[in-house]
Amino acid sequence: MSDTLEQVSSVIVDVLKIDGKGINMDTRFIEDLKADSMDQFFLIDGFSEKFNVSIADEDARNIKTVGDVVKYIDSQKK
């Protein structure tokens, strides 16, 4: 598991209060993790805080999977 994926998973576990087993790059927030719109807001906020990045609303709307977040964060760190 990549470092970014591991840290993203820890935010997901913290925000959604789940055990985190089975979270991978293909995991979908709505369909697989049952995140509602408020959960998604708190997840984006958590990712922004954890990685010290700003995620624009337009970008946040395009984030559907864990892999989307990992790729976005990795692209912002460069």
TrEMBL record:
Lineage top rank: taxon: Bacteria
Organism: Leptolinea tardivitalis
Task of the protein: Carrier of the growing fatty acid chain in fatty acid biosynthesis.
Modification(s) after translation: 4'-phosphopantetheine is transferred from CoA to a specific serine of apo-ACP by acpS.
Keywords: Cytoplasm, Fatty acid biosynthesis, Fatty acid metabolism, Lipid biosynthesis, Lipid metabolism, Phosphopantetheine, Phosphoprotein
GO cellular component, one term: membrane
Name used for this protein in its record: Acyl carrier protein
Pfam families: PP-binding (PF00550)
Listed pathway(s): Lipid metabolism; fatty acid biosynthesis
